[in-house]
Amino acid sequence: MSKQLLTQGMDNERTIPWARQQLAVTVHSDHELVSSSPYAMFDSRDPVTNFTNFISDQSIVDKDLVFWVTMGVHHIPHTEDLPVTPTVGGHLSFFLLPYNYFPECPSVSSRDNIRVEYVTPNTPADGLKVERNGNKENGACGALTLEQLVRQRPDDILQTNNEFKLL
Predict the structure, then answer these.
(1) What is the pLDDT of residues 148-162, one digit of tens each?
(2) SS3 of residue 138 by DSSP
(3) Which is nearest to 54 in space by CA: 72, 73, 35?
C-alpha cells in the first residue's frame, strides 16, 4: 500500500478521496458499489460518487462488511524506461489473515499434514523426526517415503548442502 502524496483538498486531489485511506471498512450498502466514477476528474467540486460519505462511525459488529483497499506504487521514471514504461513487478496484492482466530495452525488437523524437525534442535547431526498426521508411511505407488529419503540423503531434504547438483 502506498501513501497518498497529494495535499488533501488541493487541485485534483478531490477527485480521488478514496486514496486518502489505505484501508477503510464500511457496512455493506447496495448503493455504494464503487469508490469513484469515470466522471470524477471533471467533477471535483461536487463528485458523482463521493467516497468520503461512505465512511461513518456506524457500528460494524455483526454486519456484512466491505473492505476498501487502496493499492499503488510510486514509479520514479528513469532513462531505461524509454520508449515503454515497464510493468515488470507491477503485480499488487494483499492478504486478509486471521490473527489468533484458531487455537493452533488449522493445517494440523489436515490428514495430509507432515512435519519434519530435528530430533534435537541444537544438534542437527542427531537426525530428523518426521511426524505424520493421518498419512500412511508406505505409499501406494512404491515411491520412497519421506522418512526413507531423509535417511538416505538428509542434506538434500534439508537443503544444507548449497552446491548445485544435477539429479
Answers:
(1) 777 777 776 666 655
(2) coil
(3) 35
Which residue is it, cell 488533501?
8
CA distance 87 to 83: 13
CA distances (Å), origin 149, targets 34, 42, 76 = 53, 66, 49
**C-alpha pair distances (Å), 155 with each of 36, 61, 125, 162, 165:** 55, 51, 11, 9, 12
- Strand-pair partners of 117: 129
Q: What does the block give as the cell for 107?
A: 493445517
For residue 1, the model assigns a pLDDT of 61
Pairing type for strands 113-118 and 128-133 reads antiparallel
Dig out the grid coordinates for 40 from the structure: 470524477
Q: Which residue has the cell 487541485?
A: 11
| 15 contacts 44 by C-beta, under 8 angstroms | yes
Indicate the average pLDDT of the chain: 78
First to last CA, the chain: 42
Tell me the domain boundaries of the chain: 11-75, 106-158
Name the one residue in this structure whose C-alpha cell is 515503454: 84
Q: Three-class SS of residue 128?
A: strand
DSSP helix/strand/coil, 100: coil
